[in-house]
Each structure stands twice: as C-alpha cells, then as structure tokens.
Amino acid sequence: MKLKVLQEWKFETLCDLYSTVNVTQAVIFCNTRRKVDYLAAQMSKEKYTVSCMHGEMEQNERDVIMREFRSGSSRVLITTDLLARGIDVQQVSLVINYDLPSNRENYIHRIGRSGRFGRKGVAINFITETDMRMMKDIESFYNTQIEEMPMDIANLL
C-alpha cells in the first residue's frame, strides 16, 4: 500500500499509524544509518518502544538486537537495507518503508519481510512527491498497481 505524505509529516504519520494499528512485529526501513538513529531516538522520545540496527553497529550488538526481535521482546525494528535480504522473522506482520528504497530490487526484498511462512502481512510505503517517479518505476517493473492505503488500515492486520 502507498500513503502519500509530505516529508515534514512523515514522523507524525508514523506515530499516528503506530497508535492506530495493533502490530505483532514490524520492520521500519530507512535509507540511511543517520535516519535510522534519528527515527529511533524520536520514537523513544515519544515513549514508543523500538530497536534499531544498521551496518555501523558491532556484529555482536546486531546479534543481540536480532535475538530480541526474533524472541518478540522487541516488537518494532528500525533498520536500513541490512535487514532486507535473507533474514526471516516469522511474526513480522507489518513492513513500513519510511523511505522508499532507491532501487526496485531492494523494494521487493524489503516488503518480503512481512507475511512470511503463510502469515498475513502488510507493507506500507510512505511516498513523498520526490518518490513518485521511483514508485511508478517499481509498479511498472513488477507489473503491479500498489493500492492507496485505506482508512480502515487496522482491519487489515
């Protein structure tokens, strides 16, 4: 699903979504390590419990974060494309592309993190005006039409 949003309203939109939807586990993708750290700090400041992970962290620190996420003690993981490929977490029901990936291959790997092992899953893409060309490219390449996010999103999860 896509949700058109102004760049300056992304964080507020995420908080609204977070408080609306009951999420088993979610992965929020950002394009940069700096954005991951910023978003995790902002979410924590607003009293949301989140974990974050990116390539600048030590491997043992990333292992601990993944162990906590897999066990369910951490429910929301904010990350870069580091987590987009090859990592299976059964309980992930929601993927949010806070930043649309810069290439279509990463897009399919990111959204593939939700709804695994026959479970229900949803991917939501925050789309700014500057993302429109990439979104059209993704839709064209995969020969699909990504639907606008419905108002009753809570019923989809």
TrEMBL record:
Positions of the Helicase C-terminal domain: 13-157
Nucleotide-binding found in the keyword field: yes
Signal peptide: none
Record-linked Pfam families: Helicase_C
EC number in record: 3.6.4.13
GO molecular function, a single term: RNA helicase activity
Stated name of the protein: RNA helicase
